[in-house]
Amino acid sequence: MIKNNGYEVLIKLEDLETVIYNMINNINDCKPIMIDQIVKRALYKVENIDASGGNQIRWIRIMEGDIECSGETRCTITYKDKKKDMSGEDYALLKAENFVDATHLFDLLNYERTSYQENKRTKFVCVLDKIKYIVRFDIWPKIEDVVFVTVNVASSANKDDIEGFIAALELNQFDIDDNEMVDVDNEYQKRFGKPASLIPEVTFEFDLDLV
To answer: Per the confidence metrics, is the pTM higher than 0.85?
Structure first.
């Protein structure tokens, strides 16, 4: 699905190698930032959880392990309202010193932690027609048969530019979600009856069958 700042798609793990091959061979300026590295998150409850008891609509997330284009590993604190666009007061991001100190602060403030999560991330930075794109490939525990692909535009681009980049990777032909909104919580909800944001521990060692 094309969004204002990029593109999201869900593909099969078996197609990942082909997508990366297309990216490297069809785009001259393309380099890896991180390969199959663990990114960890802690999610904290904010008031106004969906009345159905399902998806957590508003949350605070502390994340560490993502690597920027500069090569710097960062820790961030993010507030997001998933029903809103990523703009204004509905989305905010701050950099933190480290994961341990950031989570300790929110624990001291008695915020309820709803989930600790880990996933494996591969990230590339590519330049096509002088436009920079950041491409993320995320694999999540117990649903390793699929890959969440995110393309973010790091410089000015229009819809035609983004579609041209997507075509170079041939991503559309591997889309298994029929251009629906790609969401990790929704995928866990479908498979385990509960969104990832409400599962206490989402790691590669944890047995989700016990949830």
So the answer is: yes
